[in-house]
From TrEMBL:
Residues 4-71 form the LIM zinc-binding domain. GO terms for cellular component: cytoplasm. SMART domains: LIM, TGc. This is LIM zinc-binding domain-containing protein. Residues 241-269 are annotated as: Disordered. The lineage of its organism: Eukaryota, Metazoa, Ecdysozoa, Nematoda, Chromadorea. It is found in: Cytoplasm.
Length: 528
């Protein structure tokens, strides 16, 4: 039996993933049923055809469907005007135009279409759509088993906790009853005992909950790490097949099949881009996709990266999608189905998957090498002079391999800015010291700037030519992303986080800035 082929990617379509037939007898995969120009997901009620060219069997959104100009010729089919006939003598109705040799002049005055046609990136995707979808389904089943195990362990631990708590209360109350009969204690002592047992129970339950969540996060991270390796192995094999089948051998350098060792990037972020406007199209697609519904990571990544022309743009699309989704405030139904759009992010609901784990997962679906880095950060609550001797300021972030270099990405901080305590107490509810806002600084951050806020456990992941020690990290001045956004730097490279005043109570801090910032920045300070 001959299967129908997707008009977009020329791959077989199956009943569970088929859209069509359309009016022109074409079929599409659900993931390929999107605007030919911008990649926006379409539905049977929202897609448009090009009415100016009946040979064009592509689909468009309402904003990108080609529109006829005032001088456009009538739609043609096979080189002949639609609906035009020939006389008995065989003369065409527009023969006069051709005889006068002005047809080319009319064609030259046609209004150009607002958007040039581009070949859809999905057709050139290195990994077969069906193969990637099949692997994702296997991964989804593994996740189902893991979350089922989480629920079973949670119920078992809670039942055991309730039994132990009940036995403890019964022993304590029985001992109190004996003392009460002897007149050693009174009713006031009973109230104190119940309050003590309640506090002890709540603390024990909180500790049990934290230990279980930490264990679940580790297991989820291990699962995602294994699945990411399997997905990248699929890309590796596909790249090998593509390179062996490419007889030209003159294309751009291929993406590395194995991740390179951690080394300082070959160029700075400013050498890659200086203005986020270069990502305008990528960002708009990410924002649009974040507001739409997708049911698989395969479909999500192919939609996000449909117009991406480089590894940097792929990573950018993932970064913007995560920061737009605002995962920290998402609401989930209690009976979340893994096969629904929100089911993709069920790890967020369970508290087992965070920004850095999700970013690594999505990078693997785009064929990008990504690692999770653990260490310390000067996060909320940090004050200059603090020592990192405990786990208060533990943090995690990513490094992704782009154009042959490792680049830092901190989706969590990119999606939210920290508000100082004074501002938070005045303008935000109690306990909410975070305001959510996209920050470009934490995408492809240069190591020389990243080290001011993040210190990895493994020194090679500082990506600095000369790694620093933890004590040196503690001594670095405490600055945030705005400092680097305005192009500021310290005149003294040895400036410490804590500056001692002289005998007169004065202290000097010198800052370099560009000429454009001289008239637009105002500085203020607080003395400690």
């Amino acid at each position: 039996m001959v299967k129908e082929l997707c008009h977009r990617c020329s791959k077989p379509v199956y009943p569970t993933d088929k859209v069509g037939p359309l009016k022109d007898s074409t079929y599409f995969h659900q993931g390929c049923f999107k605007c030919y120009i911008c990649g926006t997901r379409l539905a049977l009620k929202t897609y448009c055809n090009n009415r100016n060219d009946t040979d064009d069997r592509e689909i468009y959104c309402n904003g990108h469907v080609p529109v006829a100009g005032p001088h456009d010729l009538p739609p043609t089919r096979n080189g002949h005007p639609c609906g035009s006939g020939t006389s008995n003598g065989g003369f065409r109705r527009d023969a006069g135009l051709e005889d006068m040799k002005i047809a080319h002049a009319i064609k030259a005055t046609q209004v150009s279409k607002p958007y040039p046609k581009i070949k859809h990136e999905g057709a050139r995707y290195v990994v077969d759509y069906d193969a990637q979808t099949r692997l994702e389904l296997i991964h989804r089943r593994d996740e189902d088993k893991l979350y089922e195990a989480f629920d079973e362990n949670k119920k078992r631990e809670y039942d055991q906790f309730e039994r132990e708590t009940k036995e403890e209360w019964e022993r304590a109350l029985a001992d109190f009853a004996r003392k009460y009969q002897k007149g050693q204690v009174g009713n006031k002592n009973k109230e104190e005992l119940i309050r003590h047992l309640t506090i002890k129970r709540d603390k024990k339950l909180e500790t049990l909950h934290m230990q279980r969540k930490e264990r679940e996060r580790l297991q989820t991270a291990e699962l995602v790490d294994r699945q990411a390796k399997e997905m990248l192995e699929l890309f590796k094999q596909a790249r090998v097949d593509c390179s062996s089948g490419d007889s030209n051998g003159g294309g751009p350098p291929s993406y590395p099949t194995t991740p390179p060792p951690p080394q300082p990037p070959m160029c700075s972020k400013r050498d890659v881009y200086t203005n986020t406007s270069v990502f305008e199209t990528i960002d708009q697609v990410a924002i649009s996709v974040a507001q739409s519904e997708v049911t698989t990571f395969t479909e999500l990544i192919r939609t996000l990266t449909a117009s991406a022309r480089s590894d940097v743009e792929k990573a950018r699309a993932i970064y913007r999608w995560i920061t737009v989704k605002n995962l920290n405030v998402m609401q989930f139904d209690s009976d979340l189905d893994s096969n629904t759009p929100m089911g993709l992010l069920r790890g967020i609901k369970y508290g087992t998957e965070s920004y850095h784990v999700l970013f690594k997962r999505l990078c693997s679906y785009a064929g990008l090498h990504c690692v999770v880095i653990k260490g310390f950060s000067k996060s909320a609550g940090y004050q200059p002079g603090f020592r990192f001797d405990d786990n208060r300021f533990r943090n995690t972030w990513n490094a992704v391999c782009l154009d042959g270099s490792w680049r830092f990405v901190q989706c969590n901080w990119g999606a939210r800015h920290l508000v100082n305590a004074k501002e938070g107490s005045r303008s935000t509810p109690k306990g909410d010291s975070l305001r959510y806002e996209y920050d470009d600084h934490y995408f492809m951050t240069d190591p020389e700037e990243f080290i001011y806020e993040f210190f990895p456990q493994e020194s090679e992941w500082q990506l600095l030519p000369r790694p620093i020690t933890l004590r040196q990290f503690e001594s670095l001045p405490f600055v945030r992303s705005l400092f680097f956004r305005y192009g500021l730097s310290f005149t003294d490279p040895l400036l410490q986080a804590v500056v001692q005043a002289d005998k007169s109570g004065a202290a000097t801090v010198s800052i370099n800035m560009c000429n454009e910032a001289l008239d637009s920045l105002i500085f203020h300070y607080n003395l400690k």
